[in-house]
Amino acid sequence: MDHKAVNELQDLQYFGEYGGVNPSISDSSTYTFLSAKTMFDTFEGNTEGCYLYSRHSSPSNLYLGEALAAMEGTETANVYASGMGAIASVIMQICGAGDHIISSRTIYGGTYAFLKNFLERFATETSFVEITDLEAIEQSIVPNTKMIYCESVSNPLLEVADIQALSQLARKYGIPLVVDNTFSPLSIPAARLGADVVIHSLTKFINGTSDCVAGVVCGTKEFCLSLKDVNNGAGMLLGSTLDSLRAASILKNMRTLHIRMKKHSENALYLAQRFENDGLRVVYPGLPSHPGHTIFQNQMNLAYGYGGLMTLDVGSLENANALMERMQDRKLGYLAVSLGFYKTLFSAPGTSTSSEIPLEEQTKIGLGAGLIRFSVGLDDDIERTYTLMTECMESVGILNRQVTRATS
């Protein structure tokens, strides 16, 4: 059981300006210098500990970045105003015109659209490959391949990437492995498993209160400084700056992340096991029936479980919509995108968070119209939640209790 990440987080201490237990919030867009030369040196990137302009950095953003670097086990981290801001900055920093990217086929719809559509404007090509097929990935590598990109647990199909194996393959060809670890903070130590760059949408589990949008890039000091370079840093020049007030808020919420992740995982595993016993088509990495169960188990921090995401295929979009509306009526959660909230959130990704992926491609990767993605909440009585959910399924004709009992 590896508690290293949480211990490092808990060991971080920042005194506020007047001795407060929370660090003071730097509510400034720009910073003063005692000498003109120091300002010049800071612009040139030759001065540590000096703040220039909040688009470059701020004390509040630095505190949050250091906490996230401690969590992931990287040298440092840069925070951004959104997960997509972090993703776009990393990709555009590493890749340019004429370069090639290998990406998992099953990824967040916004990332897919950025790689498939937006980067075409800059003559950057992406090959979308089954991330669990190492042979196919290796066969896709060409001389101008500059990156292998994947999600530790894919959105929304919950495929599990073998980060250690992918890292070995990437290093064999001198290519950086970039991993979006949004679905599994603490559960999967992506950087410690060999990822060169780790990205999170802080909007989700890490913040945990669905009240802001933010992102982070965790990596080496050299790479993170390159992102902030005033002349050619994608993070600096694209301007995806996280507000200091939000950075301070996320830092406070991070202190309960280890408790929340345990409960999210515990509740999701309970529901997944019960639904599978009911004969429903449920996918959850914690189930032995999941194709990536063993891989997840081999690379996980056991204390934090298999994560808070599961999917349920109810056959059709009509069934999915009816069930989600019924569950919301019964106050079991919200029909909403995103994840990591204290209440359960559910959506049909084919028509929401993955709608950027063409229908033909959705069919190829197995993203059915009746698939519901659940971000399981922090319910105290998960057995009650299960009972109420199955009642909702009965009421819309998805689950027949009598048939279930007769066949069990």
TrEMBL record:
Keyword Transferase: yes
Keywords attached to this entry: Aminotransferase, Pyridoxal phosphate, Transferase
GO BP annotations, alphabetical order: transsulfuration
Entry-annotated residues carrying N6-(pyridoxal phosphate)lysine: K204
Record keyword Nucleotide-binding present: no
Cofactor: pyridoxal 5'-phosphate
InterPro entries, A to Z: Cys/Met-Metab_PyrdxlP-dep_enz, PyrdxlP-dep_Trfase, PyrdxlP-dep_Trfase_major, PyrdxlP-dep_Trfase_small
Coiled-coil zones: none
GO molecular function: carbon-sulfur lyase activity; pyridoxal phosphate binding; transaminase activity
UniProt GO cellular component terms: cytoplasm
Protein family per UniProt: Belongs to the trans-sulfuration enzymes family.
Name of this chain's protein: Aminotransferase class I/II-fold pyridoxal phosphate-dependent enzyme
Organism: Pelagihabitans pacificus
